[in-house]
Amino acid sequence: MKEIDCRGMACPEPVLTAKQALERNEDNFVVIVDNASSCENVERFVRSQGCSVGVEEKGKDFYLHIQKMALKKERELPRSKERGDQVVVYINSYLLGVGDEALGSILMKTFLKTLVNLQPKPTRLILINSGVRLASEGSEVLETLRSLSEEGVEILACGTCLDFYRLKEKLRVGVVSNMYDIAQSLLAADRLVRP
Length: 195
Known about the structure:
- The protein is of the alpha/beta class.
- The protein has two domains: 2-68, TusA-like domain (Translation Initiation Factor IF3, 2-Layer Sandwich); 87-193, Hypothetical Protein Ychn, Chain: A (3-Layer(aba) Sandwich), CATH 3.40.1260.10.
- The protein has six helices and nine strands, in the order E-H-E-H-E-E-E-H-E-H-E-H-E-H-E.
- Strands 8-7-6-5-9 form a five-stranded parallel beta sheet. A four-stranded mixed beta sheet has the order 1-2-4-3, with helices on one face.
- Helix 1 runs parallel beside helix 2 (36-48) and helix 3 packs parallel to helix 4.
């Protein structure tokens, strides 16, 4: 079985490397990564492509045993039921706007609460940079984000950003994502909202 060593690669290189292996019609292969974030990202990606995957930990490394089950098109964003649009909300800060921090916090809370009451809902909410704080322990908008998630809004939090702010273990709503998923979501969106 072919081994593909992705240790030391930054996000999203391990995902892109696995994608290239699938495109070369590799049926069975092993991807080796050296951190849990890369392991989760590669595992989620190959599963979305119709592959089975088993994860084996060896010391500090993760060995993902990947078996291609069937050729599958890349996952599309869910479409809004009312309009058929893929609406992505892109949030790159825990504050809304530039200026006073207290006002920026109030505006972000208000914006997210307003999303809960609007129809149609966005299909996906992307949190990067300090925006990942919104979905982490201690955030004043956790319940609002949980409400959005329960109503079918996918919430993606940048794994590199969570690591940078040391919040990976404190993520309370949504999933840890990677730059490949984020870029794919932005490019596939019919409409992009950037508050």
